[in-house]
Specification:
By secondary structure, the protein is an alpha+beta fold. The protein has a domain of 101 residues: 2-Layer Sandwich (Enolase-like, domain 1). It has 13 helices and twelve strands. The strands form three sheets. Strands 4-5-8-6-7 form a five-stranded antiparallel β-sheet. It has a four-stranded antiparallel β-sheet with strand order 9-10-11-12, with helices on both faces. Helix 11 runs antiparallel to helix 12 and helix 12 packs antiparallel against helix 13. The longest helix is centred in the C-terminal third of the chain and has 17 residues.
Amino acid sequence: MKPFEYVSVTSARQASEALGTERGPAKVLAGGTDLLGEMKDYIETPSRLVNIKTIPNLDKIEYDAKTGLRLGALVTLARISEDKNIRQRYPVLVQSIDLSAMPQIRNAATIAGNLCQRPRCWYYRDEHTICLKKGGAKCYAVEGENQYHAILGGGPCYIVHPSDPAPALVALGARVVIEGNGKTREVPLEEFFILPRQDVRRENILAQNEVITHVLVPPPAPGTRSVYLKERERESYDWALSSAAVVLTPSGGNVGTARIVLGGVAPVPWRAVDAEKALQGQPLNATTVARAAEAALAGASPLHKNGYKVPLAQAVVRRALTLTMA
């Protein structure tokens, strides 16, 4: 591992200053479950780690009936999953976390870190392969081993976003609070992530000197039903081949609003807008569920080894929607 400077800060402003403006030399350290592995493999070689675990009050869980849930950036996945209030009001979030990783990882990983984790593509993670995302000339997945890669929103890089909580939070209409350079901004989580065609070297909109301080989730509407389902290669904890977060609210016996977000199939948590439209104002039955599942994957463009993801993702959407009917 390359030698590095270790700096602990006590405020978001100090973190911003310690991170600087030049991309690359400094990295934020929270749970470290992803970053430290990248450093050991020489994928990331920061000259400075900025420890934000010493910032007060970023490990709080707060809920207000009017404003909803407020998660500090340092709240661990385990604490979210174990919170009785969250389990009652936001089952889709708890389900996504329970499927995300083994307990040891959930006890260390933070919610902000989970949203900012880097892709698991084996070409990106191979320290000897200089792929497009690492400044190289090509995406090796295009003609290589791409069975786990994107079927939606890919190109020129075909990573899939690795987070399980991210699709659930997007489906819940979450926002992130970002601080940097003495300024604070709130951004819908759906707009936080960016596609490779926007910037192949990045997965989100954070500037070098910015940090997430909070994740905000609005209160659920009366009668809201939500489900998170995930298909993976192994029954033990594994990355998603395909997943779906579904959040529905009723209206007069029909679907009032619907939010469907796919995981494991795109470089970002993929909002299935056409599937949502197919459900809104309609009764939730076998016919509308099948129509929505087909619409969710209508724009899929598989690579030569991952075509199986299309029917798999459709099945996950059908099952998730069916569970909301139970």
